[in-house]
Amino acid sequence: MRLGKLWHKNEETKMLLTDITVEHTRVSKQTGVRQTFLLHPFTDTQRDTLGKFEIVRDIREPGFKDVKRSTFVTFQQLAELYAKGVLDEFGFSVRMCPGQGTYPAANPAKKILPTSIRPGSSFDLAVQKVDVSIPANRDLRTALLRTNVKLPL
Question: Which residue in 19, 20, 42, 43 sits closest to 97, CA to CA?
Answer without folding.
Answer: 42
